[in-house]
Amino acid sequence: MSIYVFVYGTLRTGEINDLAQAATRRGLPEAQWVGPATVPGMLVDFGSWPGLIPVDDGRRVRGDVYRVDPALIALMDEIEEYVPGQACSFVRRETIARLDSPLNGARDVHCQYYPIDPSLRALAVDIPADDWIAYRQSRPATKGT
Questions:
Q1: Global confidence as pTM
Q2: Could you list the residue range(s) of the whole structural domain that residue 16 is in?
Q3: What is the CATH number of the domain that holds 99?
Q4: Which among 28, 40, 70, 131 could disulfide-bond with 23, CB atoms 3.0 to 4.6 Å apart, if both were Cys?
Q5: Domains: count for the chain
Q6: Quick one: how far is CA 106 from the chain centroid?
């Protein structure tokens, strides 16, 4: 059984917690890239990593959808320091991601993802962009990024 996940920050390809590389290092089944997608939300900047805050005002966050083996969810929980039932920076939730598919049109996929605990929003800066990687690459270099 496969699970779909939406990643928007450091778990994306080429980022510091690249999901495919993390799976390989642990000897876990490879994450299968499904495609670029968006989910309802806005981004906030914690310096070296982003947070996603779900919103229902039309804003969307860009990222990628992967199909993963359930064993990879435990690794993602570890990377995001998520422990069910405990206070954590990230929470694992389900969302509907809209895949961008120029050949077949957009389609919706139920995914697991990791928005931040809303109580942490005051510790971050709102990001006007919808894509963490593009935003991070375009901002002036700062310590810790």
A1: 0.90
A2: 3-138
A3: 3.10.490.10
A4: 28
A5: 1
A6: 19
Determine the Cα–Cα distance for residues 40 and 137; give it in Å rounded to an integer.
22
Please name every residue paired with 65 in a beta bridge, in sequence order, or none if there are none: 6, 35
SS3 state at 45: strand
* 140 SS3 class: coil
pLDDT (tens place) for every residue of the chain, 145 residues total: 789 999 999 999 999 999 999 999 999 998 999 999 999 999 999 988 999 999 999 999 999 999 999 999 999 999 999 998 888 999 999 999 999 875 555 689 999 999 999 888 889 999 999 999 999 999 876 554 4
Half-sphere exposure of 135 (CA within 13 A, CB side): 24
Rg value, the chain, Cα: 15
Residues contacting 60, CB < 8 A, separation 6+: 38, 39, 40, 41, 98, 130
Asked if residue 95 is part of any domain, the answer here is yes
HEC string for 110-132:
EEEECCECHHHHHHCEEECCCCH
CA–CA separation, 85 vs 66, rounded Å?
25
